[in-house]
Amino acid sequence: MVMDTISNMIIQIKNAGDAGHDRVSVPYSKLKNSIALVLKKEHFIKDFEVKEKPARPNGRSGGGKKVLAINLFMENRIPKIKGVKRISKPSKRIYKKFSEIRPVKNGYGALILSTSQGIMSGRDARRAKLGGEALFSIW
User: Fold this and answer.
1) How far apart are CA 116 and CA 106, in angstroms?
2) CATH fold of 5-138, please?
3) Nearest-angstrom CA–CA distance, 84 and 138
4) What Pfam families does the record tag this protein with (predicted)?
5) Separation CA 27–CA 20 (nearest Å)
6) What is the chain's pLDDT, residue by residue, as a tens digit (139 residues)?
7) What distance lies between CA 78 and its chain's CA centroid?
8) What pLDDT does residue 1 have?
9) What gap in Å lies between CA 90 and CA 137, rounded to an integer?
């Protein structure tokens, strides 16, 4: 069974906001770090940092792993992220030319793409005239 780590990350962020939490931790990867950087640039998250997960007191494994600690944008305890939609999945990849990239929710959302220049928003991809794999949209 293939695990979709990008879907897990964006749903954890959305669910944490819906539950009223202003912070969420997700397992670290370079891809998730790049996605968090774009979400911060697009003002969907406040900040994030890479932390080392502390070892368990009973000596079991689980320590030494990295996590992304993400601080969410909250406006009067209401999360900035209203919804997310996974576009390209492990079972079906969706690619977009730069001319096919459209604004999400009349410009209030963002399309996150994986391009040859790295992870970037749809706005930046159109400016750079780059297409790529449409990972997800967020609003």
Assistant:
1) 26
2) Dna Ligase; domain 1 (3.30.1490)
3) 4
4) Ribosomal_S8 (PF00410)
5) 21
6) 568 999 999 999 999 999 999 999 999 999 999 999 999 999 999 999 999 987 777 666 666 799 999 999 998 889 999 999 999 999 999 999 999 999 999 999 999 999 999 999 999 999 999 999 999 999 9
7) 19
8) 57
9) 16
Tokens 């969907």, located at residue: 44
Comparing CA positions, the residue from 138, 115, 112, 107 lying closest to residue 44 is 138
Distances (CA, A) of 97 to 51, 92, 121, 123: 36, 17, 14, 13
Question: What pTM was computed for the model?
Answer: 0.89
Among 45, 127, 125, 43, which residue's Cα sits nearest to residue 135?
A: 125
Phi/psi for 36 (5° steps) reads -60, -35
Tokens 């969410």 locate to 72
